[in-house]
C-alpha cells in the first residue's frame, strides 16, 4: 500500500492544528468516497495507508481547490503575501518560478494544493534543536512563511508580558504543502487586518468531522461571525439545527454544488440522527484563531474553542416548525450587527434561560413583550414562533389556559 508517515509539530503551534485539519479532511473525504484507508496513531503522529492513496490525494486536491474558489466567489479575502516570504519562496520547487506573480496566501495555497499527489510515500519528520525546529521530508529547506510563525514573536499569546522564543522553523515544500492544505480549509475570512481560521486540533472520525465541514462551509456562506460572543454561539447552534431542514440543505447545495461533495444523502441522514442523540462526543474539537497583521508582523491575538451546548441543541430540537428556526436565525443576524440593543438583550436572556441562569417564565414574558410590539421582528410569524419558544422554555402550551395562568 501507499503511505504517508506524519510526525506532528510540537503542541501549542498553529501549524500542528493545520496539519491535523488537513489530515482529518483526507480521512473524511476518502471514507465518503468509499476508499479503503487506514490511519494509525504512532508516537506523536500518524501513518496513513491506502492502496488508492495517490487517487485520494488527487481528488482531495480538486475538492480543496474548489473550496478556495468558493471562498473567493463569496468575497472571502486572503492576507497579502509578506515581502520576506516572496524572497524566501524563490527557493521553492513548486512556486519559485512564479512567486513574483502571486499576491495572497490564498493563491500560494492553491498552487501548493494542486500538487498534493506529490506527497505520496512521504515521511514527514520533525527535529527539535536548541535554536530551531526542522520540518523535513528530505527536500531543500527554507524559512517558515511569516503567517505561520505567530508563536515566535514578541507579545504573541501572552497577556501583558513580553514573549519571545529564539527558535526558528525551517521546512521544505512537502511540509509547506501539508500546512497549506489545512490552511485552505480552515481560513474563514480576512478583514480589518485580522485573519480568522477555524481548525480541528485532534484527529476526528469521519462521522465527527462532517460537523466541522458543515459549520465551516455553511457558516462561510451565511457570513457567520466567529467572535466568542453569546450571539455568535447561538448562531452556530441554530445553523446546526437549520442544516437538519431538508429545504435549507437543498437550497444551499443547489446554489453551491461544492456542498454536495461534502456529504451524500446517506451520510447526511446519519449525521442528523447523530445530532438528535445530543452526544457531545460526535462533535470534533474546533478552535477559532485570530491573527492580526500589524506593522510587518503577524501576531495571534486570540484562540478560543468552539463549544457545542447540548442544552441549547435540545431546546432547538423541541421547536418542530422549520420556519421558526429560520426566524430565530434571522433574529440572531439582526443582533449580531450590534445596532439593535433590544433584540440583543432578548437573545442573551434566551441563552441564559436555556442554561438555567434566568427564570424561563420571566424570559418568555420579556421576549413576547419586546418582539410582538415591533413588526420588524416578524409580525404574524413572530407570534406563532413565540408560542414554540415558550413551549420549549417552559413546557407550557399557550392554548392551555389553566397552565398558562
Description:
With 405 residues, this protein is an alpha+beta fold. The protein has helices at 14-32, 53-73, 83-88, 105-113, 173-186, 206-221, 230-242, 246-255, 265-277, 310-318, 322-336, 341-354, 360-372, 379-394, 401-404, and strands spanning 2-7, 38-42, 45-50, 122-128, 132-136, 142-143, 168-171, 187-191, 194-200, 286-294, 297-306. The strands form two sheets. Strands 2-3-1-4-5-7-6 form a seven-stranded mixed beta sheet. A four-stranded antiparallel beta sheet has the order 8-9-10-11. It starts with a strand and ends with a helix.
Beta-strand level of the residues, as a percent range? 15-25%
- Portion in helices: 40-55%
Biggest sheet character: 7 strands, mixed
| Number of β-strand runs | 11
Descriptive terms for the model:
4-stranded antiparallel sheet, 405 residues, 7-stranded mixed sheet
Summarize the structure.
The protein has 405 residues and is an alpha+beta fold. It has helices at residues 14-32, 53-73, 83-88, 105-113, 173-186, 206-221, 230-242, 246-255, 265-277, 310-318, 322-336, 341-354, 360-372, 379-394, 401-404; strands at 2-7, 38-42, 45-50, 122-128, 132-136, 142-143, 168-171, 187-191, 194-200, 286-294, 297-306.
